[in-house]
Prior knowledge:
Elements: E1 2-6, E2 10-14, E3 24-27, E4 33-34, E5 42-44, E6 50-53, E7 65-69, E8 74-82, E9 86-90, E10 100-103, E11 107-111, E12 117-119, H1 123-162, E13 167-173, E14 178-186, E15 190-194, E16 203-207, E17 211-215
Amino acid sequence: MKIIQTNNDKTLFKEAGNKHAAEEYVDNKQVFMLKFKTRGNVVFNANGERILTTSERIQIPKDAIVVYYKDGREVPAYNLTMDANVVSFKPNKKAKYRPIYSAKSEVFMIRYPDGTRDILTNLAVEEQRQREREAEEARLKAQREAVVADSIKQVTVEAAASATNPKKATIITKKGMRMKVWVCSETDSMVSYKKTNSSKAAIFNMSKAKIKSIVY
């Protein structure tokens, strides 16, 4: 194929060697790499955004296996082996080179000298899993915030209910401050109090984490 133009979301191309071929577009979300003969490669992520552009063409020996990483790296490989989690290979045929060990999750594809390929990572599935993880994290965060909000609301409601019969006390904070107050409500994590024993007085909340002791 002949690449005519690539922008932020689509790539325009046509069949090489056919001057009558029509120009076509492909969504960059469907493309992993644009591999050029005379210059470097352009790699896209699952959102169709460019993540790597090499300035020089990478020379791969014809007898080498090629390991394509998800971040766009293209590495020649010899004596390649794989297990359930790891890909191992040497970057050169010479025996002095130590093997490279890479997590399978980091590798997108392996191409063999005969042209066959093994796709190790489905980028679309990976992107979906990432979105699901982010959604789950957001759900848990919202859940935690809701629990805290409910706790504060409960203390406030209890304080309002007890505001007509508060208890006189002295709050001693961990910073050494002494406050003479009227306690409306006290839980394991929060204290609700007024500064004066008046039905019109404002009610304040203080975390137990800031309090050294309460003397009634």
